[in-house]
Design goal:
The complex is a heterodimer of chains A (636) and B (368). By secondary structure, chain A is of the alpha+beta class. In chain A, 35% of the residues lie in helices and 20% in strands. In chain A, strand 18 and strand 19 (516-518) form a beta hairpin. In chain A, helix 11 packs antiparallel against helix 21 (604-620). Chain B contains 14 helices and three strands. The chains are: A alpha+beta (636), B mainly alpha (368).
Chain lengths: 636, 368
């Protein structure tokens, strides 16, 4: 078989070479079958998956932030702007490697190395992302850095639009500030999807409430990159959609006036030198509403801050300053914080009592300076210790007689049901107004259930006493209301009984075509108070007399239009009295409601009412000399 | 002479398959390397050299075609000594490339002796086996054959050039099969191979990275940035080619240099990406035609020497195709074995064209 032919050619083939070659061809066919079927699995079955992997490989998508919408006042004045700014950024990992760079940079920028390191460390996300150390470089600094680029490793110049505030601190509490998104915010906005760590987000004020409108939509740049990640070219550019501009109902002039008036009121109170007259005044708030629709015309809170501090990340030092109790917490929007409202609450008691038939318009009362209706052991004083004598409800309002309201309060108590609380809640107390601003306090309308719950740990304080109801009747005790709630309530009185949800967002203007869309008042933003017009009118006339012959008469002497309002002086445990005034003008055709509250400002008529007068004068467009500097009103 | 009478002399089917493969290869090499211009290089650099190599290879092919292969076995001893000497010379004058000393720089060209040595080994082994007077079934035949291959094998392993060493073994096994070695001899070789592998690993003859490279194809995700990176990128490139490919010169993975060694060891990934399943299969079918024609030549060869020569060449091609394509699709360990006719490489292209020349020669003299 396997014969070797040694005769002719030694290497004649054996016969079975064919069968062995057949084995080799089977091996060959087997190899090709395996290769082709593997290709089928890779390219046809798995092709889609590998396509996606391939795209992830060579396309980098770089998000492009959308310019944030601007914020305007109602007359089109810019309140928040964007402007390009040139800053210097430092790349953290390089900064670590080349401390020399940092040393040089600190000299150039005039910042200490510690400050720079602190700025770098503040980056909460993506620790490798370059951090802007300082915005708004001067030309000299810029030129110097450009020239010495080789020595400044990891240092870069960046130009980005940043938020700018042409009016400085003005309206800071309304506008709010922006900052880097936190992980909690990320989690909350997960469904929105468009947010990434490192993004800027509105943190407070309308920046936060109208975030969706202002934000716009991110664009993206699809870059082709090679294996080492170096960008080669732009494949696709998706321009960002800029955020819409926001128009607020705020009137820049009135806002300015409100802030100035609060400031002056505090200075004025301090200058009295007497703590009981406001020498300890240190904070305050004012709200101006349009009673015809609930628009917020101004909202001031003192002390204030500059939102610009937050642009590009606030420094630790600035942040600590803002949180330092010595600085009275300037970030707080006091217009939305709850305080005992004092006598400004009395119209609630009045209307409630009239509506419930606990008193009548023509009833008269006797004020002897003190009242012992709860027993000799619990004598209560009217602010007017010599007594108002016999007086009706109107005078009880305009001269803020406490005795009358003690009596009415007692009647509310005796009635058995918690009707006073009922009316307080009807008029919007104890719940948020739903204003389009964050961090609004509910305030508090205390009742039996609340007191029991509140004093859970102290059974002896859980009982509800007649004195508790009497306290509420004069706006004291555990009652708490925000200046905004107060303004809303008075707006309802001023407009004849309609309650509008206060709001500050007025319209949005699309970025393209400048199409202006007014925010509509929805049915749920408005409701009629269940009180007869007659009682409202009665209250209105009583409030008008406050400014003509009552506790605010001095403050409004010579005021060019008819005006109405109510002073208040509320007692706060451990502090001097808080001064309140809530009123509106013109009395016969109300256009503006103003609520002013000065913490430890002394008496409402002396401190708060003059401030309200200034604000109203500006809002109405009058030149007004003001109330003069020595108004003293002893009432509460 | 009409075409039919030429075909009687020259295997035109094989010629057509080889030419198509070479054209395929030149285009693939150009596509794979034109992106070097991204790095500021000459986009035609590799293309030009490959075309020159093709021309040289064609000339040598014709020379081999018109010589008489039967005379070659007279030079067996000379060729064998030459082969060994050249492989030794590499240690002294060779250029180091990726840790392996395996290059001669001759002017414009880099010559890789190990490529040529494969072909020389085929010739010497074929004449050695054809000249044996026995029936090639004794232990002595086996040991002598192993010794014949063993010396050059040890030399390339020392370079170290694992790929070429494996080619030698493939050639040996293929030719032993056709020469009629009994099954037990194959069993002995396989057993010995396993023992050597185990001992080699135990004694750390193979470096860790080599073991990594050899085993990573089983699970490339183990080390996606290291040894598995190439394989992963290759699979992404090929897989993303899908049915019809991304089009020639449009492979993103190729152009963007995600693929390492994309013009040599991973040229098939470029084809898979740009030509898709159809293009890749077409390439494989061209190879299959070539192999089948080669087997036909082996069958028709007038004598055992011709059959064994053809068998050696076919075994080499089959092995290189299997290992090269297999590694790009995750079936085979990653070893630096080029794809015949397709991969960039002057020596490789010339050597394989020479192989075609030998096959055509055997075919042409099948009746003489």
């Amino acid at each position: 078989m396997k014969l070797i032919d040694t005769t002719l050619e030694r290497n004649v083939k054996p016969e079975d070479v064919r069968s062995r070659l057949l084995i080799l061809s089977f091996i060959a066919i087997g190899i090709f079958t395996i290769l082709i079927s593997r290709l089928w699995f890779l390219q046809v079955m798995g092709g889609q998956m590998y396509m996606e992997l391939a795209e992830g490989n060579y396309i980098r998508v770089i998000p492009v932030d959308a310019p944030r919408g601007l914020i305007y006042d109602r007359n089109g004045q810019v309140l928040v702007n964007n402007r390009p700014s040139t800053g210097v950024s430092v790349s953290p990992q390089i900064a670590e490697k080349y401390p020399e760079s940092l040393k040089k940079l600190s000299k150039i920028l005039g910042m200490s190395i510690g400050e720079i390191k602190e700025k770098i460390a503040e980056k909460k996300v993506d620790p490798l992302k370059p951090r802007v150390i300082k915005w708004d470089l001067t030309d000299q600094v810029l030129a110097y850095i450009e020239e010495h680029k080789m020595e400044l490793l990891g240092v870069d110049i960046v130009t980005e639009p940043i938020r700018s505030y042409p009016h400085g601190t003005l309206g800071a509490h309304i506008l709010g500030y922006i900052g880097e998104i936190s992980e909690q915010e990320m989690a909350k906005l997960k469904d929105t999807g468009d947010y990434m760590l490192g993004d800027t987000i509105g943190k407070t004020g309308v920046e936060s409430i109208y975030e969706k409108i202002l934000r716009g939509e991110k664009g993206s740049q699809q870059l082709e990159v090679n294996a080492s990640g170096r960008p080669l070219r732009v494949i696709k550019n998706q321009d960002p959609i800029p955020g819409s501009n926001l128009v607020l109902s705020v009137d820049l002039n009135v806002q300015q006036a409100a802030e100035q008036a609060i400031n002056e009121a505090i200075q004025q109170a301090k200058s009295t030198g007497k703590p009981e007259n406001g020498a300890n005044a240190d904070a305050g708030a004012a709200v101006v509403l349009d009673p015809r629709n609930g628009e917020i015309i101004a909202m001031a809170s003192y002390p204030t801050y500059n939102p610009e501090l937050f642009v590009g990340g606030i420094s630790k030092q600035d942040w600590d300053n803002l949180l330092n109790p010595d600085n009275k917490f300037p970030l707080n929007n006091r217009a939305l914080m709850a305080y005992p409202p004092g006598s400004t609450f009395k119209p609630v008691t009045l209307i409630g009592a009239l509506a419930d038939g606990l008193t009548a318009k023509d009833e008269s009362f006797l004020c002897q300076g003190s009242w012992d209706g709860l027993g000799k052991k619990w004598v209560r004083w009217c602010w007017n210790h010599s007594g108002h004598g016999r007086l009706g409800l109107v005078k009880a309002i305009y001269d803020s007689c406490d005795t009358v309201f003690y009596i009415i309060g007692q009647r509310f108590y005796r009635q058995g049901e918690e009707r006073l609380q009922y009316w307080a809640k009807i008029f919007g107390f104890g719940s948020i107004t739903g204003v389009d601003l964050p961090m609004e306090a509910k305030g508090r309308v205390p009742d039996k259930a609340w007191k029991k719950e509140f004093n859970k740990g102290n059974p002896e304080y859980q009982r509800w006493y007649p004195g508790d109801t009497v306290n509420i009747a004069i706006g004291q005790g555990d009652l708490l209301a925000t200046p905004l709630q107060m303004a809303s309530f008075y707006a309802a009185i001023a407009n004849g009984g309609t309650f509008y949800r206060p709001h500050i967002g007025k319209a949005m203007i699309s970025w393209n075509g400048n199409v202006k869309t007014e925010f509509q008042i929805k049915p749920e933003d408005k409701h009629e108070l269940p009180v007869s017009k007659d009682m409202i009118r009665y209250t209105q006339s009583a409030l008008e007399q406050v400014t003509t012959q009552g506790t605010a008469a001095a403050a409004f002497a010579g005021f060019p239009v008819r005006t109405a309002g109510k002073t208040g002086t509320s007692q706060v445990r451990g502090k001097e009295d808080f001064a309140w005034y809530v009123g509106y003008a013109p009395a016969d055709d109300p256009k503006y409601v103003v609520a002013v509250m000065i913490e430890q400002g002394g008496h409402g008529g002396s401190t708060a009412a003059p401030a309200a007068r200034k604000i109203l004068a500006t809002a109405l467009g009058y030149y007004d000399k003001g109330a003069g500097s020595n108004i003293y009103d002893p009432s509460r | 002479m009409d075409l039919r009478s030429i075909n009687r002399k020259i295997d035109l089917t094989m010629v057509a398959a080889v030419l198509l493969l070479c054209i395929y290869g030149v285009i693939a090499v150009f596509s794979a390397t034109q992106s070097t211009s991204l790095n500021g290089g000459d986009p035609y650099f590799f293309l030009k050299k490959q075309i020159v190599a093709f021309a040289i290879g064609l000339v040598i092919l014709l020379a081999l075609l018109f010589s008489n292969y039967n005379k070659w076995k007279n030079y067996m001893a000379f060729l064998y000594v030459l082969n060994v000497l050249v492989l030794i010379a590499v240690f002294f004058v060779g250029q180091t490339h990726k840790g392996a000393q395996s290059w001669f720089q001759i002017g414009f060209f880099q010559l890789q002796p190990s490529e040529f040595s494969k072909l020389i080994l085929i010739v010497t082994l074929a004449s050695f086996l054809a000249n044996r007077k026995s029936q090639l079934d004794s232990m002595r035949d086996l040991l002598l054959s192993l010794a014949h291959v063993g010396l050059p094998l040890l030399l390339v392993l020392a370079q170290p050039d694992l790929g070429t060493a494996m080619c030698y073994i493939a050639i040996l096994l293929g030719m032993m099969l056709v020469a009629g070695f009994p099954g037990r001899h194959f069993a002995i070789i396989i057993l010995a191979g396993i023992i050597i592998a185990i001992v080699g690993i135990q004694l750390h003859v193979l470096k860790d990275y080599q073991i990594d490279r050899l085993t990573v194809f089983v699970n490339p995700d183990n080390d996606p940035k290291g040894a598995g990176y190439n394989l992963l990128q290759s699979k992404i490139a090929i897989g993303s080619g899908q049915l019809f490919g991304k089009g020639i010169f449009s492979g993103t993975q190729t152009r963007l240099q995600f693929l390492p060694e994309r013009h040599t060891d991973f040229i098939f990934s470029v084809i898979g990406e740009e030509a898709g399943f159809f293009g890749a299969t077409l390439l494989l079918l061209l190879f299959l035609v070539l192999i089948m024609r080669g087997l036909q030549t082996a069958v028709f060869a007038k004598n055992l020497f011709g059959t064994l020569l053809a068998t050696g060449i076919i075994s080499l091609w089959l092995f290189q195709i299997l290992v090269n394509i297999g590694m790009t699709i995750g079936l085979m360990p990653i070893t630096g074995i080029p794809l015949p006719f397709i991969s960039y490489g002057n020596s490789s292209l010339i050597v394989h064209l020479m192989g075609v020349g030998i096959l055509l020669n055997i075919y042409a003299r099948r009746y003489v």
